[in-house]
Amino acid sequence: MKILNYGAGAVGLGLDSFLLQAGFSVDIISRKETVAALRRKGLVRWGIFGNFKARPSAFHAFSSLKQTPPGAYDFILVTTKSFDSEAAAKDISLHPKLFNKKTKIILCQNGWGNAESFARFFPCKQIYNARVITGFARPKPNEVTMTVHADSVRIGSLFNGDLSDLEKLCRAMTRGGLPCRLSRHIEKDLWAKMLYNCALNSLGAILNVPYGVLGEHEYTRSLMNDIIREAFLVMRKAAYQTHWKTPESYLKAFYKKQLPPTAGHTSSTLQDIKAKKKTEIDSLNGIIVKLADKFKIPAVVNRTVYNMVKFIEERNSTGHSFD
């Protein structure tokens, strides 16, 4: 089984580590700095799922798809940030050597809309999505730590694609130590994660606190409740589905089951802000705002936190300090 990971940030390196731990071959595409560190020091993972190190000889790392060896891949994992989806899709499409008739693209990204970006370049039946609800951070270019884990990775198709070949990828991930299973309801899984991320990512970034702190105070709970209720309204209007029929039933599961095991996690949005990088807010609360505008639905709280994160992002890009 040949696997290519295109992106290899915190989530990508985390997923790679489990595939390598299971004994599978992985080729990694990432930035030059990351590639150099991986080639020198190998890939290191530590945290709640234990420690693991893959020597540089255990995998290949490249900064360009032109450098990959001949031969098609069985699976191409896309782990870029959501705002890079279209650029990633275009780049991958320009390298037909990566593909045969059975090659499958697995989008392991935050937010909503990534599949649509890839569908502009590839047949829909070739595109799959993975819902990853595990917290990763990358303290060094070649190191990743796992901070929290809420549920197994789930892989499925938004376009009624054949899932049979994906079973071996799920088994490989699970064998390496990260539970993974097929999903025939991946839209519901992805929107469940959207609700979770929209409530936590933006507020955690704005207030500079981990998820658990948001759940401890009535003021932030009130904001999260409103974010989720607004998201349900636009989700229904757009005819998308999740596993809960009402916002109140989701909120009950959110506070009792989802938030506690991830209480110590720092949102990826906050990590990006601290690193002065572009955030994925456009694919999170930004999607709720976009759909609200389309259907003329008020989404006051989602719009407010979206605008606040965009302000911080813009200030970072111009080099202004918040001190």
What would the keywords be for this entry?
N-(1-d-carboxylethyl)-l-norvaline Dehydrogenase, domain 2, four-stranded mixed β-sheet, 323 residues, Rossmann fold, 12 helices, alpha/beta
Following the backbone from N to C, one meets helices and strands in this order, namely EHEHEEEEHEHEEEEHEHHHHHHH
Q: First CA to last CA: what distance?
A: 50 Å
**Spatial strand arrangement across the major sheet:** 5-2-1-6-7-8-11-12
Low-confidence stretches: none
What value does the average pLDDT take?
95
Layout: helices, strands, pairs:
Blueprint: E1 2-6, H1 10-21, E2 25-29, H2 32-41, E3 43-47, E4 52-54, E5 60-62, E6 75-78, H3 85-93, E7 104-107, H4 114-119, E8 127-131, E9 134-140, E10 143-149, E11 153-156, H5 166-176, E12 180-182, H6 186-207, H7 211-216, H8 218-237, H9 247-258, H10 268-274, H11 285-295, H12 300-317
Parallel strand pairs: 1-2, 1-6, 2-5, 3-10, 6-7, 7-8, 11-12
Antiparallel strand pairs: 3-4, 8-11, 9-10
Helix pairs in contact: 1-5, 6-8, 6-10, 6-12, 8-11, 11-12
